[in-house]
Specification:
- The chain is of the alpha+beta class.
- The chain has 2 domains: 242 residues, Rhodopsin 7-helix transmembrane proteins (Rhopdopsin 7-helix transmembrane proteins, Up-down Bundle), CATH 1.20.1070; 156 residues, 2-Layer Sandwich (Alpha-Beta Plaits), CATH 3.30.70.270.
- Helices cover 69% and strands 9% of the residues.
- It has a 4-stranded antiparallel β-sheet with strand order 4-5-3-6, with helices on both faces. Strands 1-2 form a two-stranded antiparallel sheet.
């Protein structure tokens, strides 16, 4: 009987050691992954408002992993000294997990273009659950509210209000998921910041980790889930810098040149390739009169109108060429479709001007040219489209100057 008891005790001890070893390995892998992400982000020197929460979140996750490694190494060791050490580090772990969940909520908000967190009232409202959990965790080594350390096994177990340590992180993670879902459905610009796949795992992985932690509390999956998602976000940022214009979310010039050069190598077939060049009229005036931030908003607005029009045509490739100039490539069988497309763009600009409350109106000049297979080069095709653009821009400037003279008279 005694031998059987020793065998069972030995098996349990071995199982606990394996669990501790696996927990430490997972934490170390997360630290390595987070360090890689940290270096990649710093290398980009991104000054967007999303960078600071991103870096704070990484610091918090790394600190959580380090504290968890210490907790795993200390748990189960007998003696009053180890019990005190376990209390200190378990308290630190609880507080870091609360702060990490809060920062996750703040960071996810940077992708939704939400203004909710910009007012002090809302900021403090969202911080109240965090402060409650921080204070209760800090008091727990003496009061055993959130957790207590078993004096026999030197292992942490939930206190009489231990469920709060689960509910408050749940609140922040679920709120982050809800605002991302709302942004994904109602704000198409969210898809220009992150890929659909990354948004999906941004929502699903944290929620899945909550379900896992509810049933299997021996190994927390929250930190690994956050680490994997940040890696996916970092990968999206890298791809975005390579192929996407940072302001408008459109394809950039590099991606456009790669696309059109591939198109020119393909046999022409029944469809003819057309290159459109679009330029914003008097863009310098908007910058000088209303500021560069308003000029950026004008470019974003034009890009949004073009995206809306282009979304209705298959195989159309839209990009920001540089400055206030946009290009798109389309294949069509009929010249009438191309003429109608130009009219649709001008109509969309006019409708915007009719309903806008802004002090300035938008105007664009459009030039286009068809590619003659075997005769044209990319340079000659671009030159013909640009010539047509220049002619139209000259006409528009004459008309706009006359309108301005009438308004000032």
């Amino acid at each position: 009987m005694e031998e059987n008891f020793r065998d069972v005790s030995g098996t349990l001890a071995g199982s606990e050691e394996n669990s501790m070893g696996f927990r430490i390995e997972v934490d170390l892998m997360c630290i390595i992954l987070l360090q890689w992400i940290f270096r990649r982000v710093l290398r980009e020197k991104d000054e967007k408002r999303s960078q600071l929460p991103f870096l704070i979140l990484i610091y918090s996750l790394v600190s959580t992993c380090v504290i968890d490694i210490v907790c795993a190494a200390v748990e189960g060791r007998p003696g009053p000294t180890w019990i005190v050490v376990n209390k200190i580090y378990t308290c630190a772990f609880m507080m870091l997990m609360a702060f990490t969940s809060y920062m996750w909520f703040i960071y996810s908000n940077t992708f939704t273009r939400s203004k909710k967190l910009e007012t002090p009232e809302n900021c403090w409202g969202y911080r109240v659950p965090l402060f409650i959990l921080l204070i209760l965790s800090l008091l727990s080594p003496w009061s055993e509210i959130i957790f207590k350390i078993d004096p026999v096994t030197n292992r942490s177990v939930p206190g009489y209000l231990g469920f709060i340590a689960y509910l408050i992180p749940c609140f922040y993670i679920i709120m982050a998921a809800i605002q991302l879902i709302i942004a994904f459905v109602y704000d198409p610009e969210t898809k220009t910041v992150l890929s659909v796949e990354t948004i999906f795992i941004f929502i699903v992985l944290p929620l899945a980790s909550l379900v896992w932690n509810l049933f299997f509390d021996s190994l927390s999956t929250t930190v690994p889930a956050f680490s994997l998602i940040l890696a996916a976000v970092c990968f999206d940022i890298q791809i975005g810098h390579i192929s996407t214009d940072g302001l408008t979310g459109l394809n950039n010039k590099r991606q456009y040149l790669q696309f059109i050069q591939n198109c020119l190598l393909e046999p022409q077939g029944p469809l003819k390739l057309y290159l459109f060049m679009i330029d914003l009229d008097y863009f310098k005036h908007i910058n000088d009169e209303y500021g560069h931030s308003e000029g950026d908003l004008a470019l974003i607005e034009v890009a949004g109108l073009l995206k809306k029009i282009c979304s209705g045509s298959q195989g159309m490739f839209l990009a920001r060429y540089g400055g206030d100039e946009f290009v798109f490539v389309i294949k069509s069988r009929f010249e009438d479709e191309i003429t109608q497309l130009k009219l649709d763009i001008l109509k969309a600009i006019k409708e915007r001007n009719d309903r806008t409350t802004k002090k300035y109106k938008l105007s664009v000049s459009i030039g286009y040219a068809s590619y003659n297979y075997g005769e044209d080069t990319l340079e000659s095709l671009t030159a013909r489209a640009d010539d047509m653009l220049y002619e139209e821009k000259t006409k528009h400037h004459i008309i706009l100057d006359k309108e301005n003279e009438k308004e000032n008279a």
